[in-house]
């Protein structure tokens, strides 16, 4: 999504299921589809908060949507800035915002956690505006009687939510009001409309397209974008028998001067006046300028033809355009390509090495199993999933045992947290300090700063949510002095080969496990099963059961909730690159990593043992057992394996 390639999976239908029971009732099929954010009522609070800009999401919307939303918010924001205490969004502004596109509206998390009220469960696309309910149908004429809740015009689009058969849409071609055919009917009027087959009395109608609003939006950009006009000052001087001189000065201090081609004559009837000069010289509508100030210095009663004044104005504009034109020196293509090649880091050849084996675990028992199965590095997850039961002190014995055997143990900080989560983070910090861990993993800049403050001098590995994605980010990591990095799992082997990794920086890659697809403040389990809203607390069903989402193809996506009540949705297929371990060796990886934070101790034991054996085989120069070792793991992954992005990219 952040790379402009979002397939909008949140707008697809899903079912929530639990291990203890197959079917969980939900308000609708679209469990991940948020309502549209609308903050027009919150502008005073947003302004008072100190934000410097308001961002609108219009990348996947029509130009009419962008034009309407920006126009409405521009007017509302101007009123708010001039008088925030008396600001109120108008009903017409809200109507236009809803009419141009809405999935129903929410203020998101600005005021509270909305829980279930964040989601548009019934449909993932435009709802339109409620137009009314069919009061009756004249089946002989094919007309329906409706009392309009919104104005309606010929050319508008409407949708019938029929009681049987789903929805039926049409464009309004005729409207009858009091027996007369009209082009437009106001809200509150009772009209008759043509309706498609299958529509019944009592069915609801929604207006999904407002032709008048669309025309208004299109008119705002029909002539294309114009740069705001630059204010200029003009100074006119002249006398009878001398050329008329015009000097134009813009606000950047640029000055141009032009003059008429012949001397001014003495006027008999109409000498030049300030009014005449302002009228002729101020005709700047199709230029980049507007006349801000006019200064006149004339002697006697000079006169020049109006055509000369127009020519004088055009000459001044042309010279001002020329002097303001940015200086552009043509770029030599060959020189550019040489400079580009010189700036691009050279991918140094890495010496092949047998990587160490790292595993990320989510509970003390899994840590013990990873140790017994031969892990070289063990990472303790900073997210504590509710499906697991343990206490901090349960980690002490296995961590000490691992360290005594020379295994490196790192504690990971959470992937993200809010200021309101800091008390929990402080508690975690105190518990980590009681453990003899080797170092810590940071998943974001806040985590890096937290480690510097609370664990100065400890080794740090940047985890894959840090998005170490290219040579620049690798170089930055080396410069700040971290021990190692986990490369982004979105990189291909080819892209990885082109990245130079400094000698003082260790790097690792993910080779196995169910990777998270989404980390969300919104919890589907809490909303659907716990019925959480801004007014109702969640009773914590995640503590009593395990949950997963299924899509249209019946793929299962495991769902976990952490200590901050955030939802983690994992891939339906597990990453498995056991057979590709030789490629990690060839590329000089320091470590390969198994991602098993949500997995059981038994799972951890089997997977770590398989990868340990595979690395031992590679150390002996033998590859033939890799296929069999991978096949043994297939029973742990009923949904199948994936190679992720290592070969095909995003």
Describe this entry's structure for a reader:
The protein is of the alpha/beta class and 650 residues long. The protein folds into five domains: 1-32 and 516-570, no CATH class; 35-109, no CATH class; 129-219, Translation factors (Elongation Factor Tu (Ef-tu), domain 3, Beta Barrel); 231-321, no CATH class; 356-513 and 577-628, TIM Barrel, CATH 3.20.20.70. 27% of the residues lie in helices and 24% in strands. It contains 17 helices and 33 strands. It has an eight-stranded antiparallel beta sheet. An eight-stranded parallel barrel has the order 20-21-22-23-24-25-26-32, surrounded by five helices. Strand 23 (439-442), helix 11 (445-454) and strand 24 form a beta-alpha-beta unit. Helix 2 packs antiparallel against helix 3, helix 8 runs parallel beside helix 16 and helix 16 (601-619) packs antiparallel against helix 17. It is globular. The N and C termini lie close together (10 Å).
Q: What are the salient characteristics of this protein?
A:
single chain; 650 residues; alpha/beta; Elongation Factor Tu (Ef-tu), domain 3; 5 domains; eight-stranded antiparallel beta sheet; eight-stranded parallel β-barrel; 27% helix
């Amino acid at each position: 999504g952040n790379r402009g390639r979002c397939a909008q999976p949140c707008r697809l239908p899903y079912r929530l299921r639990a291990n203890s029971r197959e079917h969980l009732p939900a308000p609708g099929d679209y469990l991940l589809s948020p309502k549209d954010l609308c903050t027009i009522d919150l502008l005073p609070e947003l302004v008072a908060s100190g934000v410097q800009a308001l961002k609108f999401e219009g990348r996947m919307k029509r130009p009419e949507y962008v034009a309407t939303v920006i126009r409405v918010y521009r007017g509302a924001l101007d009123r708010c800035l001039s008088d925030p205490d008396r600001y109120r969004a108008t009903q017409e502004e809200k109507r236009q915002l809803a009419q141009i596109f809405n999935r129903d509206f929410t203020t998101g998390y600005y005021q509270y956690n909305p829980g279930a009220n964040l989601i548009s469960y019934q449909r993932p696309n435009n709802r339109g505006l409620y137009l009314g309910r069919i009061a009756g149908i004249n089946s002989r004429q094919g007309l329906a009687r409706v009392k309009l809740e919104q104005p309606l015009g010929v050319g508008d689009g409407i949708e019938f939510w029929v009681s049987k058969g789903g929805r039926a849409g049409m464009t309004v071609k005729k409207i009858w009001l009091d027996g007369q055919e009209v082009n437009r009917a106001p809200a509150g009027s009772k009209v008759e409309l043509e309706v498609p087959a299958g529509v019944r009395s009592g069915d609801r109608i929604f207006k999904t397209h407002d032709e008048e609003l669309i025309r208004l939006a299109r008119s705002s950009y029909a002539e294309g974008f114009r740069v705001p006009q630059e204010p200029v000052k003009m100074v006119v001087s002249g006398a009878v028998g001398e050329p008329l001189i015009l000097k134009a000065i813009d606000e950047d201090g640029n000055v141009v001067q032009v003059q008429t081609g012949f001397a001014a004559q003495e006027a008999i009837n109409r000498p030049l006046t300030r009014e005449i000069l302002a009228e002729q010289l101020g005709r700047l509508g199709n230029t980049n300028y507007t006349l801000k100030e006019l200064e006149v210095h004339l002697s006697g009663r000079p006169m020049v033809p109006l055509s000369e004044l127009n020519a004088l104005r055009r000459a001044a504009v042309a010279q001002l355009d020329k002097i303001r034109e940015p200086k552009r020196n043509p770029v030599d293509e060959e020189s550019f390509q040489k400079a580009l090649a010189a700036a691009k880091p050279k991918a140094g050849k890495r010496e092949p090495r047998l990587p160490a084996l790292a595993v990320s675990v989510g509970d003390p028992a899994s840590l013990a199993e990873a140790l017994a199965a031969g892990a070289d590095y063990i990472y303790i997850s900073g997210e504590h999933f509710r499906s697991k039961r343990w206490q901090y002190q349960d980690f002490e014995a296995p961590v000490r045992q691992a360290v005594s055997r020379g295994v490196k143990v790192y504690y990971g900080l959470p992937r993200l947290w809010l200021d309101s989560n800091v008390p929990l983070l402080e508690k975690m910090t105190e518990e980590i300090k009681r453990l003899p861990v080797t170092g810590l993993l940071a998943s974001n800049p806040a985590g890096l700063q937290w480690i510097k403050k609370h664990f100065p001098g400890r080794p740090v590995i940047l985890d894959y949510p840090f998005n170490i994605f290219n040579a620049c980010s690798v170089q930055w990591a080396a410069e700040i002095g971290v021990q190692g990095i986990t490369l982004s799992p979105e990189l291909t082997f080819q892209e990885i080969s082109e990245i130079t990794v400094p000698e003082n920086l260790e790097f690792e890659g993910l080779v196995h496990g169910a990777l998270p697809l989404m980390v969300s403040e919104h919890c589907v389990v809490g909303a659907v099963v716990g019925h959480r809203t801004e007014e109702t607390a969640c009773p914590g069903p995640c503590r009593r059961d395990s949950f997963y989402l299924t899509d249209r193809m019946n793929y299962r996506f495991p769902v976990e909730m952490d200590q901050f009540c955030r939802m983690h949705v994992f891939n339906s297929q597990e990453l498995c690159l056991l057979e590709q371990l030789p490629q990690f060796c060839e590329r000089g990886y320091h470590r390969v990593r198994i991602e098993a934070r949500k997995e059981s101790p038994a799972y951890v034991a089997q997977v770590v043992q398989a990868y340990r054996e595979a690395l031992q085989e590679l150390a002996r120069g033998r590859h033939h057992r890799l296929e069999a070792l991978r096949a043994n793991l297939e029973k742990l992954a009923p949904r199948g394996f994936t190679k992720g992005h290592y070969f095909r990219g995003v």
